[in-house]
Amino acid sequence: MTIQSLFLVTLVVDDYDRAKAFYCGDLGFDCLQDEPQPEGKRWVVVKPRGGDGAAFLLAQAADAAQRAAIGHQTGGRVGFFLKTDDFARDHTAMLAAGVRFLEQPRHEVYGTVAVFADPYGNSFDLIEHAAA
After folding, report:
1. CA 20 to CA 30: how far, in whole Å?
2. Distance (Å, whole) CA 46 – CA 129
3. Strands, E, within the chain: which ranges?
4. What is the pTM of this model?
């Protein structure tokens, strides 16, 4: 039996340090790797603290086509879902860090959720699943 999992997702950004400051500073992600690569590139991997899901590979745009994709990687849809065990705690901390929420928290049948954006315009759901 083959066991597979999605462990890394590329996120195109304008600047490694700016993106790392947002994800590791404002959102509190862990920086798992930040290694220099040839031609001025870096291998920068960030992941939500304590989570078991995929991490982001922060990839600095290298040309006009990649720069055009910054903030639009999912065509304007919510593309990323940040699961939390305590919505109120994380929502409050993110607001205090200056994270821009696009809506007020709402309660759905699946849990408590609010959409926020990274500095590039990528949309995320902050979500705490309802108890089953």
Report:
1. 10
2. 23
3. 8-13, 30-36, 42-47, 55-60, 78-83, 100-101, 106-108, 111-117, 123-129
4. 0.92
Domain 73-132: homologous superfamily in CATH:
2,3-Dihydroxybiphenyl 1,2-Dioxygenase, domain 1 (3.10.180.10)
Domain with CATH 3.10.180.10 in the chain: 1-70, 73-132
CATH of domain 1-70: 3.10.180.10
Neighbours of 4 (CB within 10 A): 5
Tokens of 70: 């910054």
Write down the residue that tokens 């309802």 correspond to. 130
- For residues 47 and 29, the answer to whether their CB atoms sit within 8 Å is yes
Per-residue pLDDT in tens (0 to 9) along the chain, 132 residues: 888 989 999 999 999 999 999 999 999 999 999 999 999 999 999 999 987 889 999 999 999 999 999 999 899 899 999 999 999 999 999 999 999 999 999 999 999 999 999 999 999 999 999 876
